[in-house]
Amino acid sequence: MFELTFLGTAASAPSVQRGLSSAVMLHREYRFLIDCGEGTQRQVLRSGLGFKRLNRVLLTHGHLDHILGLGGLASTFGRWEAIEEMEIYGGAWALQRVRELMRVVFTTSEERLHIDYHVIEPGILLEDDVFRLRAFPVEHRRTEAFGFSFEEKSRRTFQAGKAEALGVPAGPIRRDLVNGLAVSLPDGRTVLPDDVLGPPIAGARVAFVGDAGRVDNLVDDVAGADLLVIEATYTAEEADVAAAFGHLTAGQAAWLAREAGVQHLVLHHISRRYPGRAILDEAVPIFPQTFVAKDFDLFRVVKQKPLEWQDARRGQSPDAAPAKTDPATLRDETQGRAEADV
Questions:
Q1: Can you say how many angstroms the Cα of residue 230 is from the centroid of all Cα atoms in its chain?
Q2: Which CA distances in Å does 227 have to 147, 218, 306?
Q3: What is the pTM assigned to this prediction?
Q4: pLDDT number for residue 78
Q5: Residue 43 burial by CB count (10 A; 0-12/13-18/19+): exposed, middle or buried?
C-alpha cells in the first residue's frame, strides 16, 4: 500500500489555497518527502503527519520553488526535533544549490544535523525484499530533473493445497519455499518453489513527476502505473507559454496517462491563474480517471482495490467520481502571472 499526501500543489508561487510543491509518500516503514517548497514544514504540521522519520528527501529538480523549504526544515530538525541525520537525493545541480542553502542556515559551530547528499542517476535508488524506488530522467528546461517510481515487487502466493498434496509439512520448510528456496523432504524428494507457488501477482506502483516540458519520452517509464502524478501548470489556451517555460498543459498530461495505460491520473503544480475546474475540464475528455490535487489531499493506492481519496486533516472522503469533484477542490484561486522557474 502507498499513501501519498500533497502538502503543496501550486506552481512557482503560492496562492491562498495552494502552497508550494511538496508531498509525502508513505510505504510501510518508509517516509519520503518529495520536494520541499517554501512553507513545507508548516504544511507538515497542518497535515498531521508530523516530523517523525521524515528525514529522507527526494528532489525532482533544483528550482527554488521545489527546494527553498529545506533550509527551514533542516533548521527545525537541527534545533528542535530528535532527528540527527537527513538524506537528500537529487541531481548534481540541485544538490549544489541545497548545499549553498545549508551553508546559510548553519554555521560550523551550530550544525547539529548531519546531511548525506546522494547524487541521483537513472535506475534503482533503494530496494528491499518487497519494495523498489526507481528514478527516471525528465526533461525540464535543461535542468537535471527526475521522476520517481514507487514499486511493490511482484509476489507469488503459496498454494497450500499443492503443498499438502506433495506432503510438505507446515513450518519453516514452507517459509523457505515462499522465499524461493528448494527444500528436501524427509523421504529424500526435492520440492521446488515453482511446485507450490502460484503465478506472479504485480504489486502496486505510483509514478511521480514534478515539472516537465514534454511527455512523449515518459511513456515507458510510467506505463501501467496504478497512479500517475504529474504537473499540469497550464491549459491548452496557453500552450505556447507552457512550452516557453518548459511546463505541461493539462491535455498533455492526460495524453501521457492514456498512452501509458495508467489506472488513475492526479494533476498538481497548478498555476494561480486557473481554477481547478479549468484543469479538470481539459484533462477528463482525454483521460476520464483524472483528479486535480489540492493541498492535504491523500491518495491511498492498494493493488486490486479502488483508489481512495480523502482530506488528510479530516479523514473525510470527497466524491469518488473524478468528474464530480468536491467543489472545495475546484474553488477559484487568486489570478496570477505566468510563472518562470528560478
A1: 9
A2: 13, 14, 11
A3: 0.85
A4: 82
A5: buried
Q: Which residue has the cell 518453489?
A: 193
pLDDT of the residue at 317: 44
Beta strand 290-292 with 56-58 is unpaired
CATH code for 2-155+203-330? 3.60.15.10
Confidence band of 110 (pLDDT split at 50, 70, 90): low
Contact between 40 and 73 (Cβ < 8 Å): yes
Phi, psi of 130 (to 5 degrees): -125, -5
Ordered DSSP codes for 230-288: EE--B-GGGHHHHHHHT--BHHHHHHHHHHHT-SEEEEE-B-TTS-HHHHHHHHTTT-S
Distance CA 282, CA 332 (A): 16
What is the pLDDT at residue 199?
A: 85
Please confirm, yes or no, whether 295 is among the known catalytic residues.
no
Q: Which residue has the higher pLDDT, 320 or 187?
A: 187
Work out the average pLDDT over 301-317: 82
C-alpha cell at 10: 501550486
Q: Is the dihedral of CA 215, 216, 221, 227 positive or negative?
A: positive
pLDDT over threshold 90, residue 328: no
d(CA 207, CA 25): 11
Catalytic residue among 65, 211, 221, 311: 65
Query: What sign does the CA torsion over 213, 216, 219, 220 have?
Result: negative
Q: Cα(153)–Cα(303) distance, rounded to whole angstroms?
A: 11
User: Scanning the structure block, which residue is given the C-alpha cell 527526475?
Assistant: 146
- Render pLDDT for 208-245 as a digit per residue (tens, 0 to 9): 999 999 999 999 999 999 999 999 999 999 999 999 99
pLDDT > 90: percent of the chain: 71
Can you give the residue ranges of every domain in the chain?
2-155+203-330, 160-196
Q: Which three cell numbers stand for residue 84?
A: 540527527
Grid cell locating 310: 480523502
CB 207 within 8 A of CB 223: no
Q: How far apart, in whole angstroms, are the C-alpha atoms of residue 245 and residue 182?
A: 56
Alpha-carbon distance of 176 to 174, in angstroms, equals: 5
